[in-house]
Amino acid sequence: MSHFKIFFTIIKFYSVILNFLSKLFYTNYKNTKIVQKSNNFIIVDKAYDLKINSNNKNELTLQTYMKKKLPLLASNHLHHEYYFVHRLDYSTSGLMCIPIHKEACQVASRAIQERQCKKYYVALVRGYLSSNLLDLNFPIGRDDSVTEIEKMCVQNNGRSARTLIVTLESGLFDCYPTTKVLVRPITGRRHQIRVHCSNIGHTIVGDYTYSNKKDVKPARMYLHALRLVIPNQIENINVHTCDPFTENEVRLWNPLFRRYSVAEGLEKIDAFLK
Question: Where does the record locate the signal sequence feature (predicted)?
Answer without folding.
Answer: none
